[in-house]
Amino acid sequence: NMNSKSKLVKKGKIGVFDSGFGGLSILKHIVKKLPEYDYLYFGASARAQYGEKSHATILKFTKEALVFMFNSGCEIVVLACNSASSEALREIQQKFLPKYFPDKKVLGVIIPTVEKVLEERQNKKIAVLATNATVRTGTFVKEIQKRKPQVFVNQVACPLLVPLVESGKEKSKEAEVAVRDYLSCLKKEKIDALILGCTHYEFLSSVIKKNIGKKVKVFSEGSIVAVKFKDYLKRHIEIEEKLSKKGKVEFFITKPSSEFDIFGSKFFGSQIHADNVKLSNVPQKKTI
Ligand code: DGL
Sheet harboring 105-107: ordered strands across? Predict the structure, then answer.
C-alpha cells in the first residue's frame, strides 16, 4: 500500500548555513515566503569570519557544518554565506554529496542572485560588493559572464563592512566613510546594477543606496533567494515531498554567546534563541 509506505518515511528540515548570524538575513526572507516548513539554522560562529579565510579552510568548515546539519535531520541546505557559496559549493555538489550524502541537496546564494539580476535585461554593467574570499574566487564574475559574456562586471572587496555591522555600527559615520570609499572606484563606470554580495550588507543598504545614486539598482540577496528557493521546491517535487511542515525554526551556533541572540534577533527581525553545539561532540555517522 503506497499510502502507508509514504507515511513511514521520516521527513526532514530545510537547513540554512552561515559562518555566523549574517545568514539570518537570508533565512528571514525564506521563512516569510515559506512559513509552513521546518528549518534548522546553523551559524558556525566560533569560526567566523569566513570572508577572510583561505579556500581550504572554508571548504573544510563548510563540510563539517553539513555533516552536523544532515545528521540533525536536514534534507536540503542553503549555504546562506557568499564566501562558502563561492569557495565550497561546487566541490560539495560535485564530490562531497555524491560520495557521502547522495540523497541530500545543497544550494548557494550566488547563482539565484545572478539569475535575477540578469533577468532584468537593462543591466549591462554590474558591480558586486563582497568579502575578500568571494572576490578572490571571481564566482560572481564567472556566473554572470557564463550566462551573458557581454556584460561588464566589476568587484569590490569590502573587508571593513562585516566588522562594522557586527559591532553594531552600520549607521555610524565610520560606516558611511567606508562605504563611500569602497564605492568611489565605481563612480566613473556608470554601472546599472549593484549586487550586495555578502550577508551583512543588507544592513548597510540605505547608506549604500544614498552614496551610489538613484540611477543604480541595488540588489539584496535575501528576497531574491527566497523567491528562487520557492520556485526550486516547486520544480523539485521529489525534494519537497521529503520536507516536514510544522512551521518550526531552530537555531544552533558553535560559540556560546548572548550576543548571537541579540544580533541574531536584529538580523532575523524577531526574537530568537540559539542553542550551542560543539561540532566535535556531534555523533557523526560519516566522517569526511
Ligand atoms: N557570511 C559571510 C558572507 O556572506 C560574511 C561574514 C563572514 O565573513 O563570515 O560572505
Answer: 105-107, 74-79, 13-18, 39-43, 249-253, 275-276
CB 58 less than 6 A from any atom of ligand 1: no
Confidence at residue 8, expressed as pLDDT on a 0 to 100 scale: 62
Ligand 1 lined by 19 (C-beta under 6 Å): yes
CA distance 278 to 282: 7
Tens of pLDDT along 89-130? 999 999 999 999 999 999 999 999 999 999 998 999 999 999
Please give the grid coordinates belonging to residue 149.
Answer: 559574456
Cα 59 to chain centroid distance, Å, stands at: 15
* Residue pair 218/205 in contact by the 8 Å Cβ criterion: yes
How many CB atoms are closer than 10 A to CB 231?
11
Residue nearest to atom 7 of ligand 1 (CA): 49
For residue 94, whether the previous peptide bond is cis, meaning omega lies within 30 degrees of 0, is no
Pocket test for ligand 1, best of 26, 27, 50 (most atoms within 8 A of CB): 50
Which helix (H) or strand (E) segment holds residue 65: the answer is helix 55-71
Give the model confidence (pLDDT) of 224-259 as tens digits.
Answer: 999 999 999 999 999 999 999 999 999 999 887 778
pLDDT of residue 281: 46
Residue type, 284: Q
Query: Can you tell me the distance from the alpha carbon of 147 to that of 144, in angstroms, rounded to the nearest whole number?
Result: 5
Tell me how far the alpha carbon of residue 131 lies from the centroid of ligand 1, in angstroms: 7
For residue 202, give the DSSP letter: G
Angle at 133 between CA 184 and CA 21, to 5 degrees: 95
